[in-house]
Amino acid sequence: MRRPRRNRSSQAIRDLAQETRLTANDFIFPIFLLEGKNQKSEVESMPGIYRLSEDLILKEIEECLNLGIKGFDIFPVVEESYKDKYASKSFDSDFFYLKSLKKIKETFPEALIITDVAMDPYSSDGHDGIVEDGKILNDETLEVLGKMSLAQAETGIDMIGPSDMMDFRVGYLRNVLDENGFHETGIMSYTAKYASAFYGPFRDALNSAPKFGDKKTYQMNPANSDEALLEAQLDFQEGADVLMVKPALAYLDIIKKLKENFNIPIAAYNVSGEYSMIKAAGEKGWLDPTATMMESLLSMKRSGADMILTYFAKEAAKLI
Ligand code: PBG
């Protein structure tokens, strides 16, 4: 008689029969960068996650590297007074984000440093593109994204992360990078990025929520899955090095679909709201935050994610 329970009967056989394993090498740690020195403030809706100034981020990255985490995605916290309609600060080489990227990369050449390419942190409209008459302009936005990407590549970072969802941006940015000699700078494309309510705490962290409307004319409809394949085909053809699905937990089917259809690495972004839910329920004593964290991360890897962007990176790496 076939009895599946035999392979679950002891820790030894469970370990031997285990199909999926997490390692610290799977994780990319998203970090919120503040201007200044010795600055640290906790994101209220993300207990245990801090906005940090450059000096403190250098310590944080060192700690992570010692835990085996090698990838870092750096997001700038931009003061309201720096924001404008065209996100001009995003390509001003004197701006603190670009200076800090250079310092971080110089200090840790062995780490993989990823940047965020989108207008929203720098935009007075809080949108990922240029806004005119309430509309998000696609092709005009590409020019801004091109300047932003080039300024970031010049700091020496390894990979840009376009998170804006404009059409043709991967091809456009690949061209800009190549024409300027940055053929080694990679592109992790936010390929299937859904218009999700799970980004709430991240927008608190950066104070980057849209000033009007929502992001549904550029981010994807959560009801769609064929459309994720279309986005992936385009990003693949346009030269993306990594395809990302975001959020992760409510979109495991999309991760699996991309993994089955493309032979380049797939990333999953375990977003802010997914982090906050577990932390909040854990604080209330309603579920075990450590076990649910590990189970969630494991499910992303089992679905096909080759790498996972997660605010849990440090906590999980310590347990592995
Ligand atoms: C914006 C951006 C967002 C996130 C990463 N880049 C939010 C948004 O699209 O509004 C969300 C990340 C998270 O929730 O952890 N370009």
Provide a descriptive summary of the structure in words:
By secondary structure, the chain is α/β, with parallel strands linked by helices. The chain has a single domain, classed as Alpha-Beta Barrel (TIM Barrel). Helix content is 39%, strand content 18%. The chain contains eleven helices and twelve strands. Strand 4, helix 3 and strand 5 form a beta-alpha-beta unit. Helix 9 packs antiparallel against helix 10. The longest helix is centred in the middle third of the chain and has 16 residues. The radius of gyration is 20 Å and the shape is globular. The two termini are 36 Å apart. 47% of the residues are buried. Ligand PBG binds next to helix 6.
C-alpha Rg (nearest Å): 20 Å
Q: What is the CATH topology classification name?
A: TIM Barrel
Main β-sheet, spatial strand arrangement: 1-4-5-8-9-10-11-12
In total, how many beta strands? 12
What's the CATH first level? Alpha Beta
Describe the structure concisely for a colleague.
With 320 residues, this protein is α/β, with parallel strands linked by helices. It is built from eleven helices and twelve strands. Ligand PBG binds next to helix 6.
Could you name the key traits of this structure?
eight-stranded parallel beta barrel, two-stranded antiparallel sheet, TIM Barrel, 11 helices, alpha/beta, 320 residues, binds ligand PBG
